[in-house]
Amino acid sequence: MKKSVIIQGSARSNGDTGKIVNYLATTNGIDVIDLNTKTIGHYDYNYANADDDFIGLFTEIITNYDTIIFATPVYWYSMSGIMKVFFDRISDIIRIHKDLGRQIRRKNMVMISTSNSNDLVEGFNMPFVQSANYLGMTYLGDIHAWGEDDRIPEDVKTKIDNFSVRLK
Question: DSSP characters for 11-78?
Answer without folding.
Answer: S-TTSHHHHHHHHHHHHHT-EEEEGGGS--PPP-TT-TTTTSSHHHHHHHHHHH-SEEEEEEE-BTTB
